[in-house]
TrEMBL record:
It comes from Variovorax soli. The keyword Transmembrane helix applies. The chain crosses the membrane at residues 70-91. Keywords: Membrane, Transmembrane, Transmembrane helix. The keyword Transmembrane applies. This is Membrane protein YqaA with SNARE-associated domain. Residues 71-165 form the VTT domain. It holds the Pfam family VTT_dom.
Length: 175
C-alpha cells in the first residue's frame, strides 16, 4: 500500500508572489491581452448596450490612443461586448412581453410596432442609434423576431458604428 505524503515546502514555494505574477503574465500573453484594456472595453461595451445609459466610445478611444496597434482587436472586442448586451436586451424584451401588453393601446405604439414587424430583424441594424437602439433590441425580443437574424443585424450595425466613431475620433484628435 502506498501512502501519499504531501510535500508542503514545494507547494508553498510555488505560490509565491513572483510565481503568481509570472503565471499571470504568461496567461495574458497567451490570450494576447494587454494588462488593462480589452477586458475593460468588453465590459464597458456590454454595459452600454444594455438599457443602462453608459457610452463605450470613450473607453474605446482611450484604449486606442494608448495602444494604437490594438485597433482591430479593440473594434472586435467592443462589437462583441455591445452585441452581447443587445442580445440581453432582446431576451429582456422577450420576457417582458406580458407586461408590455397593457401599454399597447396607443396609436403611436401601434404604429411603431407595425413598422418594426414590417422590417423584421433588419430593424436591428439601427441598434447602434443613441437612446433608441437599445430599447429597439428589447422591442425586437418582445415582438419575438427571430433571434439569430436580429443578432447578426445588431452586430453589423454596432460594428459599423464603432468603425465610424473610432476613425472620426482618431481623425479629430490624432495625437
Amino acid at each position: 500500500m502506498t501512502i501519499y505524503k504531501s510535500t508542503p515546502h514545494i507547494a508553498a514555494s510555488f505560490y509565491t508572489p513572483a510565481h503568481m505574477q509570472a503565471w499571470l503574465e504568461s496567461l495574458l500573453a497567451l490570450l494576447a491581452l494587454p494588462q488593462f484594456g480589452l477586458s475593460t472595453l468588453f465590459i464597458a461595451a456590454f454595459v452600454s448596450a444594455t438599457l443602462v445609459p453608459v457610452g463605450s466610445e470613450p473607453a474605446l478611444f482611450g484604449l486606442l490612443k494608448l495602444n494604437p496597434e490594438l485597433f482591430w482587436s479593440a473594434i472586435g472586442v467592443a462589437t462583441a461586448g455591445n452585441t452581447l448586451g443587445g442580445m440581453v436586451d432582446w431576451w429582456m424584451g422577450y420576457a417582458a412581453h406580458q407586461v408590455a401588453d397593457k401599454y399597447s393601446h396607443s396609436k403611436h405604439h401601434m404604429r411603431v410596432l407595425a413598422w418594426l414587424e414590417k422590417l423584421g430583424p433588419k430593424a436591428c441594424l439601427l441598434a447602434w442609434l443613441p437612446l433608441v437602439g437599445d430599447p429597439l433590441c428589447a422591442v425586437a425580443g418582445w415582438l419575438k423576431l427571430s433571434f439569430f437574424p436580429c443578432v447578426i443585424y445588431m452586430a453589423i450595425g454596432k460594428f459599423a458604428r464603432y468603425i465610424t466613431m473610432t476613425i472620426a475620433l482618431l481623425h479629430i484628435w490624432p495625437n
